[in-house]
């Protein structure tokens, strides 16, 4: 059974500047052998607010919103404005349908069974693996290990590769902006192996100091663990260059791609990553599934992580032999339905095109940053966007003398706006920035500039309200 | 050693103020203590209890009449011993007040108002040992027992809404016997909830954690005092809601075990 990439033909508005026209419904569907996708999109005058309205096209956000049922609800009496995508993304109905179809139609344990349902489940599960491999341009499917999420994937590398390869005095290089999931497993492993963790600080633009990172790489550096896109600073790191530097000294690089895979084109060949991790739930897929990409020669040499069924070859009472990767690292019954759901999410994203998503989100990122900058006494963390410096479509920020939790509480309660407040699993980064917590608004391709406008208006009102009590 | 407890307790400022919320609250000056109220009544005792935390020269200004409930004024005994049932009375006042505010925004406004009335907290007391664990905002709490063995609380937070909650909790429990402090359940104060609709205890429900910390520390001090007196049995603190563990695990792993074939 072949997976089919779904294509969205471009949608043209007949007259974007006709505010009193009634909503017209435009329907399109892609013809594909294994699944169909259709979207009915109301055409409305709000397209006039979009920057590309001059071309007569609806924004990607307006085009895709109808596919996400969860976005069309009210919370606390206001329309939901969901701006917490860096925490988790929403799922299109195509993914929900894939999950439903699996559980209703062919749920069965994989790899072992001989009967029809099991064969079908196995095919779809392995097809999902292939879709992930193609999505990030891995050489082969066997380089993709399904895990519960990116955190488990990093732990897999730490306990499997790390324990058997790190010696006392070896160095693991990270930045202060890493997510806790990229830091803590290496702390645990460093305690056991005697390896040393070194952290690179930020420069004056609030981006990890890349030159300092380069200088810190030495013969002792066995591993560099870095984010591709920061979930707080919205900054990008030059993974390709860092990989070259670390390979020159015989080390390896682990890329935390949680905030990049859902939003931009990620090509592991181009990056030359040794390890790369991501989570399904941040890329429109279900929770409970993520993956580790690792080069096949590295993976083949790694000892097992979790032991149990499925990852073995032969089991005796006093010893066992182990399967080849990726099975070696997939003990027990996997999250089969969820992997298939992830495959459906990848189909959906491929149908739009990751470059298109990236371009749209760059526009949103700039709009969000500029709009947020108009709030008095606001402090946005990370670099200023410019021609040379791109930001992801998220802003972590603080408003002077206002606690971010108070902001988030009132934005939710009074305006239905969902943002996050806290340390965003980056306590070392917040400590470095000298704050206890920050608020964060993060967008995805199904958000629109209208969402940003709603957020800014609500934020402005909330700040005035809170300041009135001072 | 908490030196700030030796200074006069800064009472809540008079309710009459310049801010827009004036219309929500009556002028405090109407409630001057005159008559004694029976114990366990639903009426509020408005006297400032004399102890080393209060300034005897100033008029009492404990909160917080609700517009819908009329209070008789009362005279408190000056011996500053906690009256049994005082926390219960105050709890009823709080629940009544917040329960009458049906709009969540009005509850927020009331909390923010109370936040402004929390007595200033010493900068020097904003230390790790005073932190309340498990909160998304920062909360500092100081607890001491006065000469009568009643719990005295001072607290602060970097979040205004949390300060509002703290302000209510301090008013509710300040000067009460540790046993009465321990008897308050978070469910009793559900009516104060703002925003969070979930029932599961979490870090987000900061004030649950603050209440639990107040109870735990008050009981710990009380038990310590009783151990010294060696007279009364210890009181077991209530089961605490989800609290972040203070200590990280050391890097020790359990020894691997070889199982023999039998």
**Strand-residue proportion of chain B:** 5-15%
Tell me the span between the first and last alpha carbons of chain B: 61 Å
The total count of strands of chain A amounts to: 19
Q: Percent range for helical residues of chain B?
A: 25-40%
Q: Which runs of chain A of at least 5 residues are low in confidence (pLDDT < 50)?
A: 1-55
Series of secondary-structure elements of chain B, N-terminal to C-terminal: HHEEHHH
Output mean pLDDT of chain B: 67
Q: How helical, in percent, are the residues of chain A?
A: 25-40%
Structural class designation of chain B: mainly alpha
Most extensive chain interface and residues per partner: A-B, 23 and 23 residues
Average pLDDT, all residues of chain A: 90
Fraction in beta strands of chain A: 15-25%
Describe the structure.
The complex is a heterodimer of chains A (470) and B (262). In chain A, helix 2 runs antiparallel to helix 10 and helix 11 runs parallel beside helix 14 (449-467). In chain A, 36% of the residues lie in helices and 17% in strands. Chain A is α/β, with parallel strands linked by helices and 470 residues long. The termini of chain A are far apart. In chain A, strand 9 (221-227), helix 7 (239-248) and strand 10 form a beta-alpha-beta unit. Chain B is mostly helical and 262 residues long. In chain B, helix 1 (86-99) runs antiparallel to helix 3 (160-173) and helix 3 (160-173) packs parallel to helix 5 (206-229). The A-B interface holds A 76, 188, 191-192, 317-318, 402-403, 405-406, 409-410, 412-414, 421-422, 436-437, 466, 468-470 and B 19-20, 104-105, 108, 112-113, 115-116, 136-138, 158-162, 194-196, 251, 253, 261.
